[in-house]
Amino acid sequence: MIGMQEVIVIALIILLLFGGKKIPELMKGLGQGVKSFKNEMNGVVDSDNPTTTDKTQSPSDRPTSDQASRATKDTDETAQSQK
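The structure assignment produced for this chain is given below.
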């Protein structure tokens, strides 16, 4: 585990390498990257979870099981005709 002394040494090295004016820009970019990563991870978790509902479609916009079976049948017929 990193102690307080190591953190201070690392901060001083970063300050010497990049200077005081560049550090806020670096931290802003780092924060945006972390935020983007978290948003993407939440999107992956939501798409993997079948119990969540898609809020962009109303229930009337979602295909019914009858429509889904017809689409599957059409796809199967198309695949058979291409062989």
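Interim note for the steering committee: Residues 22-46 form one domain. The radius of gyration is 26 Å.
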